[in-house]
Specification:
The chain is α/β, with parallel strands linked by helices. Helix content is 43%, strand content 16%. It binds nicotinamide-adenine-dinucleotide and thymidine-5'-diphosphate (TYD).
Amino acid sequence: MKILVTGCAGFIGANHIYYLLDNCKDDEVVGFDALTYAGNLETLETAIKSPRFRFVKGDITDRETVEKLFEKERFDVVINFAAESHVDRSIEDPSVFLRTNILGTQTLMDAARKYEVPRFHQVSTDEVYGDLPLDRPDLMFTETTPIHTSSPYSASKASADLLVQAYCRTYGFPATISRCSNNYGPYQFPEKLIPLMIANALADKPLPVYGEGLNVRDWLYVEDHCIAVDKVMRHGKIGEVYNIGGHNEMRNIDIVKLILEKLGKPESLITFVTDRKGHDMRYAIDPTKISEELGWLPSTAFADGIVKTIDWYLANKPWWERIISGEYAKYYEQMYGSR
Ligand code: NAD
Ligand code: TYD
């Protein structure tokens, strides 16, 4: 099959490229990415050497470029990872989130319809369900939990999901949607909790924990997400939503303490800072549907995944040091300077 992967130079998209190249030897992969601040071609250095991979730079909201690509390549599958993905940035400036996450998805779907792509997969997030209370550990997100968004990021992702479902119903568009919990692993941009805390701890800088650090996230090793997306893309039922998560709920403060312990750094580096506006309290995925219908189960336990992740950041310092010394330094000052 010829597969288009958008957002291929970001965290999960790049991991997905490596998953496909390593495990799906009959497939040819085209990666498409606008190389925003979050996209990094260095991440794809090894992939680019493969004769089964090609990179194309472009923006998913650019209709002309997208249509030309679809006309030329005649894809069998489109997997849309491309998005603006950071909640804090969406709170500062929602516009680009609406443009990329909603209109970009529409542009891709229109091209897929025009060139009759037989399969489209939309990578969504559990954040579309809003949050759960801390005192109801029995509650989890299922695929029928109502959409109830909190941030401009989650609202933009939910809007895209609704549009995908509308295209399925109205045009018989052959799409699936997956909604995954928080990912961690190699190549995650150091603005997100786990890599940010690793980078700050290694530099003996304060570790900024929002509020009291009691918010809960349900962490999944990125490769497990890629395996799940691959299963949904090949075997999921058209028009269906699949939740992805591995029952690994943890409080932010416990993650941060664990990272400090693994790196042999003192807890005195922890600094409690002003909470995120509208901060979701707890996410928890019920993955029954994907495990029963598609036989997916997570394969990496958090205890192993976090060690692999920390080791990766230790072994790949130039990758993230280049990021935090550039444009990102300005962002960090703006976001955390007066917090
Ligand atoms: P990321 O921010 O690391 O990467 C996003 C990539 O998309 C970047 O390479 C960027 O250059 C590219 N991009 C942005 N705007 C673009 C545009 N207009 N045209 C083309 N490319 C563009 O994000 P990520 O963490 O890898 O997330 C990938 C997808 O997975 C997103 O759709 C996100 O909503 C979803 N998701 C992420 C998580 C998580 O924990 N990171 C969890 C669930 C779902
Ligand atoms: P993040 O990695 O931004 O993912 P998301 O908001 O999509 O869940 O944040 C994970 C959690 O960590 C979230 O509850 C916010 C918190 N957090 C901090 O406490 N400090 C930080 O500097 C960051 C980036 C996040």
